[in-house]
Amino acid sequence: MAPDDRAVTRDLLAALGITHPIIQAPIGSLTTPALAAAVSQAGGLGTLALTWVSSDEARRRIRQVRALTDRPFAVNFVLSFPIQEVLEASLQEGAPIVSTFWGDPGSVHERIREAGALHVHTVESVAAARQSVDEGVDAVVAQGSEAGGHVLGAVSMAALVPAVVDAISPVPVIAAGAIADGRGLAAAIALGARAGWLGTRFVASSEAAAHPDYQRAVAAASAEDAVYSGCFDGGWPDAPHRTLVNSTLRTWERAGRPSAPRRPGESDIVAVGARGEEHRRYSSVAPLASMTGEIESMALYAGQSAGVVDGCRPAAELVAEITAQAERILGRSLTRA
């Protein structure tokens, strides 16, 4: 990105076309067009996770979001998977913002820029942030180790965000990790972030595709219940993650954390999807509302912010409430007119 282009991103909310500094993290298969549209319509930035869908399905979901809102939204891709075809389909559909993770943003940046979309990339360190900026990204998500789902680094959000802000200014930084209410958002803003990246809070939202048992588990969890491991690696090997403690994780730990295929119950089918697809223990798949079986034993992705999640509520309500609480704490408006 040329220096003149980069100056535009100093006002992140204006660049993204949003009014509240809240971005719904790409929570994998738990995202839905309804969730992305609800967050965007409420003034935040909703996100569709499209890594593991077909190009036709990506087009369908993007069109669904557009039918529900005329506000900007993002699409997300994990770069360690083959995403070129679905990325191309998404850009052809006019996706305005692309977020990427777990890979080299330079491998896709030029195509994203050619399509006229903004490019946001998630990093775990100052070095990764600098590299991403050198490759032209428009904004960086600094992911703290408290975050739920797949986690790259070992540095907390409170330590990582100001270091990244200092390293890449004026390129804007978005904070991820342990943000689920206005207190967390206010802390992130005070550390120099321009917006918060919230995943766990939106897992427990009315529009998410998460199984109700999963949502209840998130709402009942403490920060200590969200632990970092490599337990649920079926389908995404060598990718550490933070999930809630459950029966699968406890049994695996008692066995000494063996690697596949020597884990207890390796071949167990623990859930079945709506189309009869079978999900085995240790799968990286999160439990959806359409699944039946041992929901408790599946990968219950959640960050340490689960300790302040107070139940399942509509996404628009969450965006308004979190923004208002952060504004009261900071004593100033965070809303772009």
Portion of residues in beta strands equals 15-25%
Helix content: 25-40%
Q: In DSSP terms, counting alpha (H) and pi (I) runs of 4 or more, how many helices?
A: 13
- What is the class of the largest domain in the CATH system? Alpha Beta
Which structural class do you get from the secondary structure elements? alpha/beta
Give the total of domains.
Answer: 2
Main β sheet profile: 8 strands, parallel
CATH architecture of the largest domain: Alpha-Beta Barrel
CATH-wise, what's the superfamily of the largest domain? Aldolase class I
Q: Would you count the extended β strands for me?
A: 14
Q: The CATH topology of the largest domain is what? A: TIM Barrel
Cα separation of the termini: 27 Å
Order of neighbouring strands in the sheet with most strands: 1-9-8-6-5-4-3-2
| Quaternary status | single chain
Give the C-alpha Rg.
19 Å
Shape: globular
Q: Which regions have little confidence, pLDDT < 50, spanning 5+ residues?
A: 1-10
Residue-averaged pLDDT: 95
- Helix and strand succession? HHEHEHEHEHEHEEHEHEHHEEHEEEH
